[in-house]
């Protein structure tokens, strides 16, 4: 696959460099991705028929990228065979493990689930990008460093973590986190079986004496969803003073809460921080289609910093074809723009292509400003589902 001339996706450059340089690198990746898609991906060859390669090459800003490059929606995915979004390339180009894709179905908010293909190098790029935000917390965030006694970047505070993943085994969140945490030397355990109750999950947490959970925060709409709030209710109701608690207050070994796919309510966050005193709480926002695209801020944990690298997030105006102004509510557009090969080079994606993909969510995006957590990347906040409400209510973010 074509190489990209950008810093490695695990480099803190993406979180601390000047916004101008970061936007320039992100735009270069996005342009190269669109050019490749026009040439090699059947759907985009047709979708970009009115665009010449020169039209794409002449794009000079992210604002212009949002205007010139036509967006796609879930209807495009639902109405076209999934193979049309995969590039026509040699098998060897998708990374040699060997030439296989991981396939994850979406939740089916527009009808039948859509198959999303991730190559090994796509997966590697996503994991490096998401891992970077956890590493940044422990190596650059003063409050977290102090809480965990981290003195330098050679310390690995997650090496003794034992995390129980509560998402369905087929859900991409469990798989992404399992890969991420294993890279840190952590142990990742899968939920007891396909359809556990909150009591089953709590029993597994006790049995394996885990010190962290990965779960949907609350109000999971999937029929078989098990959320963190319900598990904690079981803990509060059933635990005796000498029992294994999911609480740092009563069990100092329990230190980690991870979640994904949606914001956490203020009430639950307050309960985790103040009542249970969990020292490390981390969420990622993303989708099956493009996986983690933003990571929660340790200072404002209901807000998410964009995690540049394998993806690009833009907020489209609801009033015109351009981008929304900073802090203006608009449509969320996400693009998969990068991957990482086995030599560590940044390359173009080789699985399913998503470029200016309208997810159905709305959000606001702040200006680039230095945050107390140490990042200067813009913050995604006020995230709400604004399209496909009925499908989301029926199918949720979990799948059977």
Q: What can you see in these coordinates?
A:
The protein is an alpha/beta fold. The chain has one domain: ANL, N-terminal domain (Rossmann fold), CATH 3.40.50.12780. The protein is built from 13 helices and 15 strands. The chain has an eleven-stranded mixed sheet with strand order 4-3-5-6-7-8-9-15-14-11-10, sandwiched between helices. The protein has a two-stranded antiparallel ribbon with strand order 1-2. Strand 8 (291-296) and strand 9 form a beta hairpin. Helix 7 packs across helix 8, helix 7 (120-140) packs across helix 9 (172-183) and helix 10 (198-208) crosses helix 11. The chain is globular and about 70 Å long. The two termini are 34 Å apart.
Question: Which descriptors apply to this entry?
Answer:
two-stranded antiparallel sheet, globular, 400 residues, 32% helix, 13 helices, single chain, Rossmann fold, alpha/beta
The low-confidence runs, each spanning 5 or more residues with pLDDT under 50, are 388-400
Estimate what percentage of residues fall within beta strands: 15-25%
| Rg over C-alpha atoms, rounded to the nearest angstrom | 21 Å
SSE succession: HHHHHHEEHHEHEHEHEHEEEEEEEEEH
Query: CATH fold name, please?
Result: Rossmann fold
Provide the residue-averaged pLDDT.
88
Q: Supply the number of structural domains.
A: 1
Q: Provide a count of the helices.
A: 13
User: What's the β-strand tally?
Assistant: 15
Biggest sheet, strands in spatial order? 4-3-5-6-7-8-9-15-14-11-10
What is the H level of CATH, i.e. the homologous superfamily?
Answer: ANL, N-terminal domain
Structural class: alpha/beta
N-to-C terminal Cα separation, in Å? 34 Å
Overall CATH architecture: 3-Layer(aba) Sandwich
What percentage of residues falls in helices of 4 or more residues?
Answer: 25-40%
């Amino acid at each position: 696959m074509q190489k990209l001339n950008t810093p490695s996706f695990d480099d803190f450059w993406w979180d601390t460099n000047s916004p101008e340089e970061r936007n320039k690198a992100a735009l270069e990746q996005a342009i190269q991705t669109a050019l490749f898609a026009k040439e090699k991906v059947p759907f985009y060859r047709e979708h970009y028929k009115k665009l010449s390669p020169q039209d794409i090459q002449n794009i000079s800003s992210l604002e212009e990228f949002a205007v010139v490059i036509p967006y796609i929606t879930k209807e495009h995915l639902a109405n076209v065979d999934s193979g049309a979004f995969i590039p026509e390339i040699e098998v060897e180009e998708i990374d040699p493990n060997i030439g296989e894709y991981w396939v994850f179905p979406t939740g089916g908010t527009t009808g039948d689930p859509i198959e999303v293909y991730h190559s090994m190098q796509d997966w590697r790029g996503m994991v490096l990008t998401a891992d970077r935000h956890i590493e940044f917390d422990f190596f650059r965030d003063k409050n977290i460093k102090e809480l965990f006694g981290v003195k330098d970047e050679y310390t690995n505070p997650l090496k003794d973590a034992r995390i129980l993943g509560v998402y369905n085994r087929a859900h991409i969140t469990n798989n992404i986190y399992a890969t991420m945490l294993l890279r840190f030397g952590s142990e990742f355990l899968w939920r007891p079986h396909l359809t556990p109750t909150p009591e089953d999950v709590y029993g597994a947490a006790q049995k394996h004496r885990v010190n962290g959970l990965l779960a949907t925060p609350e109000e999971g709409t999937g029929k078989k969803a098990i959320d963190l709030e319900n598990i904690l209710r079981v803990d509060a109701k059933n635990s005796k003073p000498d029992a294994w608690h999911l609480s740092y207050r009563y069990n100092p070994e329990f230190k980690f809460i991870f979640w994904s796919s949606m914001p956490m309510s203020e009430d639950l966050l307050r309960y985790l921080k103040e009542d249970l005193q969990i020292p490390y709480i981390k969420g990622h926002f993303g989708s099956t289609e493009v996986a983690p695209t933003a990571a929660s801020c340790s200072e404002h944990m209901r807000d998410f910093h964009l995690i540049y690298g394998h993806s690009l997030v833009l907020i489209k105006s609801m009033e015109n074809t351009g981008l929304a102004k900073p802090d203006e509510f608009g449509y969320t557009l996400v693009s998969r723009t990068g991957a990482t090969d086995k030599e560590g080079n940044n390359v173009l994606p080789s699985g399913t292509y998503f470029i200016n993909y309208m997810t159905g969510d709305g959000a606001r995006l702040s200006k680039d400003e230095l945050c107390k957590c140490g990042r200067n990347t813009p913050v995604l906040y006020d995230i709400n589902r604004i399209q496909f409400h009925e499908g989301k209510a029926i199918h949720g973010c979990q799948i059977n």
